[in-house]
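Bench log, entry 3. Co-assembly request; chain sequences pasted below exactly as received.
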Amino acid sequence: MKTTVSACLLLFAVAASQAQVTSSRLLNSAKEPQNWLTYSGDYSGRRFSGLDQINAGNVHSLVAKWVYQTGATGKFETTPLVADGVLYATAPDNRAFALDVRTGRPIWLYQRQLPGDIRPCCGRVNRGVAILGDKVFFGTLDAHVLALDTKTGNIIWDVTSVDYRLGYSYTVAPLAVKNLVIIGVSGGEYGIRGFIDAYDADTGQRKWRFYTIPGPGETGHESWEGDSWKIGGAPAWMTGVYDPATNQILWPTGNPSPSNRGEGRSGDNLYTNSLLALDADSGKLNWHFQFTRHDEHDWDATQVPIMIDLGEKHFIAQANRNGFFYVLNRDTHKLLFANPYAKTTWTNTKDAEGRPVQDKEGGPTPEGRAICPGALGATNWMSPSYNSQAGLFYVNAREECDIFSTAPQPYEAGHAYYGSAYFPADETEPYWGALRALDPATGKIKWEFRHTSPSWSGVLSTAGGLVFTGDSEGNFIALDAQSGKALWHFQTGSAVYAAPMAFAVDGHEYVAIAAGSSLYAFGLP
Amino acid sequence: MLAASMVANISVAQQRNPYTGDPKMAKAGEFQFRINCAFCHGLGARGGGRGPDLTRAHKRHGDSDAEIFNTINNGVPGTAMPQNGTTGQGVGMTEEEIWQVITYLRSVEVKATAKVAGDPVHGKQLFYGDGNCSGCHMVQGKGGRLGPDLSGVAGARSPEYIVDSVRNPSRRLAKGLLEATKEFPQEYETITVVTSEGKKIEGVALNEDSFSVQVMGQDEQIYSFEKASLRSFTKSRSSLMPKYDESLLSDKDLQDIVAFLISVGSQ
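Structure output for the full assembly:
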C-alpha cells in the first residue's frame, strides 16, 4: 500500500507541472528554454536553444542518456517537440509517439493505416508535429490533417485536406499560431496546385486556404502560360515562421512543375520558389519575394527562413537551394543582398533588385548540361540555425553539380511530372559538403567545417556557445559556435536526415537527434 | 511507392513486351529511364557509379522481357537495385512505363558480343602471371584484395569501359562500400597516413568519416585511424593501380585479359 501512495504522489507532482501549451506560451517560448514548442524552436525560425548547461567547456563529456527505437525504416526526419516533460515526435509511415523525456520510455504510440496508393515523392517521411492546448497536430501522406490527444494519442479530429490520388501529401511539421494550425502541402513532383491551409485547432474546420498559384483574375496569374497554372506545383512543404509584430505568416514555397522543363509554362511562375507574407487571420497575401524565377532545376525555395533583427532593422534570411544566401528587409520587403554560399554556375547576372537571374546557358538541355548546384541543391530541407550571441547563421551546404536534362512529358493526374531528370556528372569532383557559418550582415562565410560527403542534417545552436549538426557518415557533432572547431562527436550508425533540438528536465539539459530508426538524447554524465 | 503498388495490383504481368520495336515507345522509355534509372545506370544506360552497363546484351538477372520486367519491378534483393518506386529519387513507374523502358533498352543494346577478339586462355595466364593483375584483384576466389573483385565485372561493364579502366585507372575510381542509409558509396581512394610514431602507411580507403578512416594497406592489413591522432593524413583520387600504358601491356594482351574476364564474368 505504501508503494501505491508514493506512486500517486509522484504522479501528482509530475501532472501538476503540466500546464497546457497556450498560444501565449508559443509567443513567449524564449522564457521557457527547457521546452521546445515549435518545429524550429520558436516563431523566428532560429533553431536556437537558450540552454547553456552543455557548453564549449564540458561538451567533450557528453554521453547518450537514452535511445528510443521506432522500428521504422526510411529517412527519419523528425524534430521532436518537448512540453513539460513529454516529448512528441513522428517517424516514417506516419507514426507519432509521446515519450517520457526523463527515460525515453513511450507513453503512447500512433500509426496511421495508409492507403497503398499514396504519392510521396521522396520517402514515407514526416518532419514533426505542432502542439497547442491538449492536442498535437500532424499532416499525413494521404493528405489528412490530424489532431491527437497529447495524453493518449487518440484522434480528436481528422480532416481530409485534398485528394491524395492527385499527388498531394503532407510531410511538413505544422505551425500553431493563435488558434490556427498552419500547414503547407507537398507534391511538386506531380503537377499539383500548391496551397497553405489554416485549420481551427479546436474543431479542425478550415479557416482559410491560400493557393500558392494565383487563379484567373488574381495578381500573378499572368505569370503562367495558358492552363499551366492548374498543374504548376508551388508546394509548401517546409515549416514557415510567424512575425507577431505584423501578424504575418512568412512561408516559403517550392518548385514549379514540371520541375525540369520550362517550356509550356513561360513566365515567372508566381508564387513558386517564393517567400509569402500572409495575414495570419485571413490568409491574404500581403507581399512576396520570388527567389528563383521560372525555375528549371527543381530548386524549391522551401528552406526555413529565419527572422533576424539587427539593431532597429528587421530582416529575414534564407540560405536557398539555388546556392545564394538572401537577406531581405521585413519592413520594406526589399532585398539587402544575395550572396553565394556554395558553388553556383547557373547565373552571372542580377536584376535591378539584386536578385540572381538564370543565364541563357544556365538551364537544362535535351542532351544534358552540367550545372551547380546539383538537383538536390546547395541545401535542402535541413534546417539552418541563427545564434544572435555569435551573430552567425549556420547552414549545411552541399557542394555538388549535376547534369540537368529536359524532355517533354504529358501531364497525367497523379503521375510523376518532372520533365526529365538529372544525373551525377560522370567525371566531376566527388560531392562534398560543409557546415558554414555566414554573417547575416554581409553574407560572408566566417568559417566552415568540412564533411566527408554532403550532409542532410539540420543545425541547432545554443546559448552554450555550441552548434550541433549531423553528417551522412552517421556522426552527431558539436562544434564551437565562434570557431567551427569540432569539440565532440558520437557515431549514431546512420546518415542523419533530421535537425537537432534541445530541452531540459529536472535541471538537466539534453540535446536530441533522430538518425536511422532511433531517436537519441544526449546529456552530461 | 506509387507505381510499385499500381503494378502490384495487376495480377500477372505480361511475359512479352507489347511495344517491341516501337521507336516512339523507345523514346518514351528513354525519358522514363532518365527519371528512374539513369542516376545509377548512367546516361545512355552505359553504366554508372552503382549500376551495370545495360547496353550489354547479357543481363545478369535475366535477358528475356519478362525477366527484365521482373528485375525492374521487384528489384534485386541483396544488391543496390531497388524495388520500383522505392528509390527516393523517382516515384516509380507504371507497367506501361516499365515496358517503355525495356523497349528503350532493347534499342540501345549492343548486339555483337558473342565474339570476343582476345584469347581468354592467354588472358588468364596474364591475369595471374606477367600482367600482375591478381596481385590486387580477385577472380573467382583467387587473387589479391586491394582492388575490386573482378569476377563479375564483364557482366556489369562494357569491354571498352574495362579497357579504359586499365589504361586510365584514375579517371573513374571504382565504387566500394555503400551503406544502407547513405546516398554515396565509398570510392577506391588512395590514403596515405603517417602515424604519431612516424610510420607511413599507404592503402585504399575502405570507409571514411570526418574523424576516422578505415584503410586496407598494401600489405592487405585492415587499419583503423583516428585522424586527430595522425601526424599526417592525405587522400588522393590518383588510384593505387598503376597506369597500364602500351609499354606495360600491349593492346593485344589487354584484349586477351578482357576476353578472360568475359569468359568468367558474363555468365
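Chain A touches chain B through 50 residues (CB under 8 Å). Chain A has one domain: 19-54+72-428.
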